[in-house]
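Incident log, entry 3
Record: Glycosyl transferase family 8 (320 residues)
Problem: checksum mismatch between cached and fresh output.
Input:
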Amino acid sequence: MPEVCVCYTSDAGYLFPSFVSAIQARDNTSKEHTDILLIGIDINPATQKIFSSLCARNDIIFLSFQAKDIGQAPAMLARLFLDDLLPASYERFLYVDGDTQIRGDLDRLLKQPLASGTFAAVTDPMSLAVGDDDQTARSFQEHFSAFGFSDEHAKQYFNSGVIYADRAGWGRIGREAWEKFGLFQSKTRYPDQDVLNLVGRDHRVSMSFAWNFPIFFRNIGLDTIISPCIYHFMSSPKPWDVTVPPWDITASLPYDEIMMTFPELAPYRTQISLGRRLRYELQQRYKRWQERREWSGERLQRILAYEQDADIKSGFKITD
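Fresh output:
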């Protein structure tokens, strides 16, 4: 049985995109080396039956738990409980958010060992704006200040959308993060991410944005430099809703193709109104202009410097 897995956690609302990403993960990993797991939280029996069947047909393991199994935590915090939810055989896991697409070989990453008690994650784009003086940077700084982060600690703030972890240490990190959530819930803007940063910073190693590529980086041409393996569609809209910059039709097609292959998934794909679609088109065109203006200069150089210094770079551990 494999000792490593790629896993997703989701409530009913995110099962569809998580399933699409999980299929892509299955296509980009060795079956002998890696299992793919889709974990549902508070899923009704009819939905469990559908996704259990579809997952089995696609070499994906479907597991279902109730909120009581994760301390009545919101589903987005289920990643904190992965040591409890995953079968005991896995020594390492790659947690992946459902609003992602896998476009390259994951084995390059998953065959890399991790030191006991550590995990790998990318620096969050917010960290790259620390010290700047524009509206975006000031908003980020306000968020970091709410948790008492110094500028040095803010620059180490990581994104929790993709986490490659040593199983042995994650149980403790997750438990401590859950305790912090009880203390800081009112201050969190990104609940799971904020509390993980409060307890996990000293156990984290950095990895290339190739393994968690913020889709807005396409606005400054970084996809041609970094060659992403995992695209992360942060914020709204999502590619299963609409095709708008910074992505094109190739990002939306996987959802359409899965729908045609498995029409029983139709109830699980959200639909947006024409008015909302038009608003998203205007919003994304403005954001493309804004992000090119704010991220094409010094911040771009910070990203490139980060890539050069990342501990796990394009899937291969950097050694001295």
